[in-house]
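Entry — protein

Goal — fold tokens:
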Amino acid sequence: MLVKTLTFDQISDSRFSGSEEELKFLSESVLYELSLLMGISVKVDEVRVLKFSDDDGNTIQSWRQMFYVQKVGRMSSWNDVFEVVNNVKAPYYNKFIRMDSMSNLLEKKK
């Protein structure tokens, strides 16, 4: 069954004194806050590291982690999800997509 899924990236960037440890803290905080909401499932991708140079030739690192959030029922609203995520750190919200229910994904792995 396809389920409406919110996707967003949590980002920590060395241009703004960010680090991989900061991203880990942000991600753990978001996961904890979302775990307090009823009817919410979350999947998180591995950390991606982007390296590039700025105009002065300095190496910049950006650590990113994609979140997939699904809501089942009406126990929590999408506004509840946005509120708890934004209270940790407002991310760049990609879009809503349709993907398999995370409960189905877990059953397929067994």
In short: DSSP finds three helices and five strands in the chain. The radius of gyration is 16 Å. Helices lie at 20-35, 78-89, 102-109.
